[in-house]
Structure formats: C-alpha cells, structure tokens
Amino acid sequence: MNEKTKANVPDELSDRDIIEFRQAWEDPRGTLDELGTPVDFEAMIAGLSLKFINLPANSVDHEIEDAQRCVCQCLGLDLSALWQWSAESPGLLVLSHFFRSVEGPPPPAPMDAQEHFPWCFQQLRAGKVVAVSSLEELPPEATRDREVWRHFGIKTSLAIPLAAGGGPLVGALSFNDMQKERPWPEALVKRLQLVAQIFANAVARKRSDQALWESEERLSLATAAAGMGVWMWDVSRNEIWATEDWRRMFAFAPDAAIRYETVIERIHPQDRERVDRAVRCAVQGQADYVGEYRVVLPDGVLRWIAARGRYHPANSPAQARMLGVSVDITDRKRAEAAMEERLRFEKLLADLSAGFVNAPSERLDERIDGSLKVLVEFFGNDRSSVFEFTDGKRHALVTHSHAISECEPFPVGSFPFDRLPWYLEQLRSGKPIFLRCLPEDLPLEAEEERRYCIAHGIRSTIGIPLKAGGTILGALSFSFLQRCCDWPAEIISRLQMIGEVFANALLRRKSEETLRAALAENEALRSRLEQENLYLREQVVLKHHHGRIIGQSDSLKRVLSEAERVSATDAPVLLLGETGTGKELLAQTIHELSNRKDRPMVIVNCASLPATLVESELFGREAGAYTGAASAQIGRFAIADGSTLFLDEIGEFPIELQSKLLRVLQDGRFERLGSPETVTVDVRIIAATNRNIEQAVRESKFRADLYHRLNVFPIHLPPLRERRDDIPPLVWAFAETFGRRMGKTIKSIPRKSLEQLQRYSWPGNVRELSNVIERAMILTTSDALRVELPFATQAAAVPRRTLKESEREQILYALQETGWRIRGANGAAEILGIKPTTLEARMARLGIKREKRNSSIS
Asked: 173 and 160 in contact (C-beta within 8 Å)?
C-alpha cells in the first residue's frame, strides 16, 4: 500500500464511501490499480486491517458482521456467510456470522456446511477457493449444493477457506449474489482473500484470547477450590510474600510482614527441626522441597499442611527465590485417621468373630474372657462385663468381667434386678444406653442407679443389649471408673456389632446345651428300650428274589432291602463301597425294580472318559462346537431321558463340570456344547464311587452342594471280608458259570480251599474272587475244584499281627467307614457289635484319636 492510499483510508465507512466504492467497481472508467480492482476498494481493505489489529476479543463478532455488510454493499453483493468449526462438535463446520441485504428463507440453526454443502465443504477442506459464477456450471457431485443455493435464492457464490498464518483450517467465508450471475475475476478473488485472512486472524486471536482467559479462570478456580496458598521466599532478604489464602492458613494478618523464622515458629515443635532441615537442604542442593507438617495457630488450633517448594537460583545471590504452594490437608488427615481407626476396628471385629466361630462350646467361656480383655485394651475403658438375663425378672447372671489392674472386675454371679432396675430394664427391652457423665445424665426415675454409681465410683457407662434369634439374651457393658467417657455417640453402632458377636456365641452355647440335653434324654430312652426289648431283633424282609446277587448275610440283606425301598422313587442314589463290591449290579437291580425298567439303563464310567470329552459325552454337542466336532452328538443325558443314568466312579468327575451336573440334578435342564438352547430331560441318577467323597469335599476336589444332592439316599455296599459267609455260595456260583462256558462240571470243592478263601481279606472283593475262581477253573482237570491262592496272596490272607494291632486295625476301619460316627444306627459300635462306651474306652486305651479336619470347605 502506498502513502497516498494510507492517507485516504477512512476510520469509519460512510454510506457515501460505500457508494463511491461500488461505482468505482461497476464503472470500468474508474481508477484501477495494476490488478484491475478499484483503488478505493484497496483503501477499504486497508481500513479493515487496521481496525482489526488491536480489536478486543469481545468486539470481534460485531466487527466481522459489520465488515461483511461493508464489503457486500461496496461490491453490490447480497449475502455473506462465515463458517467456523463448532466448539461442541469439533467435526462440524457451522454458520457463525451472517449478513443478507434482501429477504430470503432463514438459515437453520445450527447450519452444518458438511450437510448442506458437501461438495463445497470437501473443496474448502482441501484448501481450494470455490468460485461459482453460474449454478449450471457445477459438477454432478454438487447436486446437493445446487439445491441448497437455489433454496436460498443464490445465483452465484464465492467461498474462501479461512486459515490463520498458514495454520489449519479454522472456517470459511462466502460471498453471494441473489439477483444475477456474475463472474469472479482473479483480482477480486485475491482482494477478498485478504478480507478472509483478516477475518481468520481475528477469529484465531479471539479463540486464543478466550482459551487464555478460560485457562486463567480454571487455574484461579482450581487454586481456590483446592484451598492452595501461593508463597515466595526472598532468600537474600529473608522476606516472604504470600497470597491471602496462605495467610489465612497460617493465621497471619493481611498486612503483616512475614519472615522465614516467623513461619518456622508456627510449625509444631515435633515437626519444626525436620522441616527446617529439609528446606535448607533444598536451598543448598537447589532441589524441590516436598513435605507435610503440623502448624499450631495462636488460638491453639492444630492444622496439617502439605507444602511443595522449588528453589530458583539467579545470577547473583540477591536474586535467589524459592516459590511454592501450601495446602491445608487437615480434613484429609482426619479422614485418614478415621479410616485407620475403622480398619483397626474391622480387624478387631473379624478376629473376634473368627475366634468364636471355631471355638468349641467347652472353651467358649475362655474365649469370652479373652475377648473382654482385648476390648478393654482396644477402647481404653476401665472395665467390660457380660451378663445374661434369666427366665425370671428378679435376677441377672454376671458371667464374665475384665478390668484394668487399677480397678476391680465386676463380681461374677447372680445380680438382683432391684439394685439397677431402670438400667437393666432398658437393656432387657433392647435399648442401648450411653451415659457419658454420671450421675448427672441419669433420669429422675433412676434413683437406685444414682446411688449405685456414687457408691462404686462409676463415672460413665455404655450398655449394649445382646440380641440373637429375636431374643435379648443379655448385655455387654463398658464402664469408666477413673475418668469420664470421651467417646462419640457414633461408637454405639460399632459396639452393637461387637454385641452381635457375643450374642451369637451365647446363642450357640445355649443351643448346644439344649441339644446335649435332648441327646442325653434320647440316649437314656434308647437304653431303656434296649433293656425292655433285649431279645427283639429287626428282621430284614425282602420283597423280591435277586438271583444275580448271591449271598444271605445280614449286611447284604440290609443293602437289598434299602435298594427295594428306594427303587419305587425317583430319588438320587449314591452307592458307596470298595472296588469290586458289585455297585453296578446293584444299580441295575434298582433300575429293574423301578417304574423305568421298560427302558435300558445308560451307564457312564466317569473315570474312563477324557476330561476334555466329558461335557460332550454327557450333554451332547452341536456340529462345529470345537475343533474336530464335525457332526452333532446326542449326550448320555438325552439318551437316558425317561430312564436311569448310572454314573460310575462319580468321584473322578471333573470339578469344572460339576456345577452343570448339579443343575441337571436340580431342574433337569442343560445346554448342549455349542448350542444356546436349553434341553429338558427326565432322568433318574444313580451314582457310585469307591472314593471318600467327604474327604474330597474337604479338600475342595468335589463340590459340597453336588455331594449333598447325590447323597439323598446313600447305600453302602459291604466289602467281601465283612460277609465271609457269602463266600462259599459265591464260589459255587462262579464255578457253575465258568463251567458252562468252559464245558467243565464241578462236583466238589475241598473244605480246606473254602476255609482258605474265607480267611483271605479280599482287597479286590467279589471281582477278585471271580478272577481267582476263573483261574482255578482253567487249571482244574477233574470234577473237584482245588483253589489255591498265590504265595503273596496267602501271606496277605494271614498277616502276622498281634492281637492289639488287629483290634486297632478293625476299630480304625469301622470308624473310617462310618465317618468316625460311634453311636446310632450303622455307627462304628453297632458294626463292631459292642457298646459305644466300650468302644470309646478301647479307643482311649489304644490311643485312637480323630485327626483335625480342615474347616474351610469351598
């Protein structure tokens, strides 16, 4: 711009100026510069540039719209629009400034350039100027743009991208004519690009100013919200400048001069030396100071302060500074202390609960005494006592009391109600008592309590009712004899939690005492009935003939009788016994006696199935359920629908699939592998195992809930050594079976062979006996079957043990078979044929004790 043009630049554009600019543009005889644009239009652009140089951010929007008006009126244009990226939606270019000199449809708010002018939007994003002299010249992909321009009555348009200082796109500026089509010479486009650049710079500066203002506001608000105090220590002059928040934090007057020593004196004596040493080390080492300390204000109030300072050395020692911030963290410290106290209390509560849960009833009094000692040490009171309410209202029973060494514990024994009638009646009705200052806090009707407190020097007391099972069992008291209680009232809720622990312990002891009394009464009644019916014996009557199950022993008859009883139901059956005792044969017998006998029983050996295929074998699968599953498969549960499923060796069932098996047992529903559809079946389950399932449950190898579901009707198959009388008929039966198969006939078996077989312990049970007889049948060449056991087997048959060892082994075996249950039907005493008291005496003589079991069963 030359000097003449600068002199002609007006500060404000009048209507006359606009008319002159417009005439100079429309009249080709006007004065033009070397680019073919009016010289006075150049002056107008220069004026706009000067106007926007120092323009405040809050005036930018108004001046942009006024400049749009001036340019449109100067050049005879009808409409100008400025588009900016949306602050709420960064991907949208929305209309922000708009000028129109003629009437037309109002633009929507907000108006998105990408939606209404998609083609033009893409050109602008690429940094291209869009000059449309005629809408007919638009390419086919600009169909949407043409429709919108026509909707607003626009015949020609020029759109210029806005970018400040070569930076990213911040928006777009458009000029439009609604009355006629017109060309857009390059010279004019370049001049309007200057206008767009002026607008872009103004918009960018406004955004920067706005961001700076918001940043400063956020910093100010954050500092105020965080309660920070800013300070600066002039090390050489030993003067401290601080904000008002910092002065209030340390209780310094607004105009008070502050020195380093003055601040150090406000710090708590126990923290003072540590803080001073750390600050001076930071100055010498030119490092940051970070620390927390307490300050004691002139009024005695204690505050916790967290401070951080950074030393800034200068070219000369006189310019050295330390800058920092301080925060009042008193509330945080109090919260941390409260949380720590809460955690300590929760640990105390957990320890008390665990101690009472595992304590046997005979050691419950010892646990209560120890717990009272722990409570006195934890809470810092002088005495704690437990007393129980009797059935009558005349006495309470003080059962336990503990006091510090300087005080006497409460006397244990009967305590008359009339000595503390109001106090005990409140607790008996379930109301906690918190008397902070005695005897002043007592009501008027508590005259007896007032005299009692004065006579015994009780200054504060808290009483917590012990309630369990809907009954008030007693109360737990906390007494102060040397000082008044300073506990907050909120502690009542914590003490009530402790009271619940004591109440549950008392209730358990009371229940166990009631149970022991009932068991003693039952035992006395049973003994009397045994004396009255000395010669009566329970006869096992079988309703069916079981040809495949051979034997006439009482234990076998009992098993068959139980099988007949349960066969008529659909209840799950659990067959227990050593390997080879005939569990599968008994399962088949139960099935054949049931209403499901018309369909075959489905047998699954859980031990023979690979763990990876158990789920698909039992529940089925869909094609493609896993790699290699080329076709669908129906599971055993679906095959056994309406029949019986025998799960042999259930103890080997994978733990990860036991929950799915439990669900089938509970409601008969499951999902095939790879299918979301639920299948419903009606299957009766018979399970068998030679493992100790209870031990597996204790070792978390078998689910307890599945065991209880299967153990609805357990049947224990006795080993062959417990029914030795059945060995001879079993030998004859096997001899006849193998004889028919081998074409041999056995007419006699030596007595010596039968006696030898009866003496053998048969660890393999009936299956082992069958194998021995089959071997003898192969070796025999006559009609007399001679059975000889191998040498190792014979040695096992007659072990060299003392009478004491044999007795100990027999008792241990009976105890293990009954789960260490001595008394009652099928107890160890009944199996051994002796009285329970005799068995207990022999166990004590032989030193037989049950090992402690792990109480955590998952």
From this structure: yes
| Chain-centroid distance, C-alpha 550 | 57
Residues 6+ apart with CB under 8 A from 656: none
C-alpha span between 779 and 679 (Å, rounded): 54
**AA identity, residue 265:** E
The predicted-structure confidence for 62-74, as pLDDT tens digits, reads as follows 889 999 898 898 8
Write the DSSP symbol of residue 727.
H
Alpha carbon distance 300, 227 (integer Å): 21
HSE-CB of 537 using CA atoms within 13 angstroms: 5
Burial grade of 800 (CB within 10 A; 0-12, 13-18, 19 or more)? exposed
pLDDT of residue 1: 36
The DSSP-derived string for 325-383 is: EEEE-HHHHHHHHHHHHHHHHHHHHHHHHHHHHS--GGGHHHHHHHHHHHHHHHH--SE
| Cα 770–chain centre separation | 57
Q: What residues contact 25, with CB distance under 8 A and at least 6 apart?
A: 37, 38, 41, 74, 75, 76
Cα separation, 279 vs 146, in Å, equals 72
Bridge partners, residue 343, by sequence: none
Determine the pLDDT at residue 432.
92
In DSSP terms, 304 is beta-bridged to 294
User: At 245, is the secondary structure helix, strand, or coil?
Assistant: helix
Q: What is the 3-state secondary structure (H, E, C) of 270-296?
A: HHHHHHHHHHHHHHHHCCEEEEEEEEE
CA-based R_g, the chain, Å: 50
Low-confidence ranges of the chain (pLDDT < 50): 1-13, 17-18, 20-37, 532-545, 791-798, 853-858
At 675, phi and psi to the nearest 5? -130, 135
* Edge-first strand listing for the sheet containing 228-234: 239-242, 228-234, 321-328, 302-312, 288-296
Place of tokens 């006075």: 40
Q: DSSP labels for 91-157?
A: T-EEEEEEEESS--PPPPSS-BHHHH-HHHHHHHHTT--EEES-GGGS-GGGHHHHHHHHHTT-SEE
- Give the residue among 171, 152, 189, 159 at the shortest CA–CA distance from 75: 189
Q: Which two tokens stand for residue 807?
A: 């007795």
User: Quick one: which of 16, 5, 73, 75 has its CA closest to 40?
Assistant: 5
**The one-letter amino acid at 511:** S
- Give me the sign of the Cα torsion angle 821, 822, 824, 829: positive
The residues, ordered by sequence, that sit 6+ positions from 411 with a Cβ below 8 Å of its Cβ are 398, 401
Q: Give the integer Cα–Cα distance in Å for 66 and 98.
A: 10
Cα distance between residue 304 and residue 275, in whole Å: 13
- Per the document, the length of the chain is 858
At residue 643, what are phi and psi to the nearest 5 degrees? Answer: -130, -155
DSSP secondary structure letters along 181-213: -----HHHHHHHHHHHHHHHHHHHHHHHHHHHH
Report d(CA 773, CA 751) in Å as an integer: 15
User: What Cα–Cα distance (Å) separates residue 176 from each residue in 417, 530, 812?
Assistant: 102, 117, 107
Distance CA 141, CA 126 (A): 16
Close Cβ partners of 14 (under 8 Å, ≥ 6 residues apart): none
pTM above 0.90, yes or no: no
State how far the alpha carbon of 567 is from the alpha carbons of 541, 543, 637, 815, in Å: 15, 12, 20, 29
Q: Which residue type sits at 478?
A: F
Query: What pLDDT sits at residue 627?
Result: 65
Residue found by looking up tokens 């309406």 in the block: 642
Whose structure tokens read 């089938």? 664
Q: How far apart (Å, rounded) are the C-alpha atoms in residues 208 and 217?
A: 14
Beta pairing class for 573-576 and 395-403: unpaired
